[in-house]
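so my prof wants the structure for this chain in the tokens format not the other one, which i didnt know existed until like an hour ago. anyway here's the sequence
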Amino acid sequence: MRESSLNFLRTLVNTPSPTGHEVRGQRVWLDYVTPFADETFSDAYGNCVAVLNKGGSPRIMLAAHADEIAMAVNYIDADGYLYVRKMGGVDAAITKAQRVTIHTRTGPVKGVVGNVAPHLMKEEKDPKPPKMHDLFIDIGANVGTFTLVGAKRAPRGEVHAFEPSAYHFKRLADNIARNGFRNVQLNQLGLFDEATEATLYLPLARGEMSNTGAASMFKVEGVAAPLDQQETIRLMRLDDYVTARNLNRLDIIKIDIEGAELNALRGAVGTLRRFRPLVLMEVDLDNLSRAGSTPVEVLEFWHDLNYRVKRIDGSGSGTPIAAAEDLKPHQNIMCLSN
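here's what i got, hopefully its the right format
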């Protein structure tokens, strides 16, 4: 290989060009090919092109990816250890003991992927490969009870919490900050079957919140709702959120939104089919009725997705739910992929 070609290759492979941030690598390539090309250009889609003998025949195109696999830091613990998620096809099993460069605002920082020494590992008949992260989504986060549990149980993962009420969101954000969690993505919006705005009714008693978990889009008939008991909230589909955030894993969904559960799930069908997460869901027959839904529709929804449904009992065990008649007026259910 020519020395100039080898130097170019060294420069190219040592220039960071992770998925979504390929500009630096593309610039190295463009600078190298410019003297050999009749024309070079880039476009708004992130393509860099060099043209030789424009208008000639036959036309030949050589195409290649400009990005490289990488990892993104999503959590730093109190001891300064970094936890990451994949960008591209990173195999967690081969990252152990690898040297890495962390790119920061103030410049690169060298690091190494840690690993427990073999003699300190627990022996297993069928050792499992390490996981890059676990992902937890909380729909109807309220003040953060489940969000906090998820963040603590999955320190290397992410919790995406959704709470549309400004009243509740302020308390949620405060609780996350007080506990020092950095692996929580807070979203002041609700999930629904379309992107829209809606009115949220807050149950107040003598000017104070009487039940922080009972805010609903569906007003109880016969109960007056003064202006100070209402909020205008933003809604979006979970499928759109997952696409926009480029999420590549989802393990658990917890959903408790006072009757609108089925609406939110209909906006998440693509996500459910792709990731097959465990879903923890409240089913309250009165709330469903106010939302215009029925327990039969809930069970049919899960049946169509090839999920089985169990009621979560006081002991934490599950009682199979085969028909709407098996449901109580109020319960929490777990929905498991078959």
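also thought this was worth mentioning. The longest strand covers residues 330-337.
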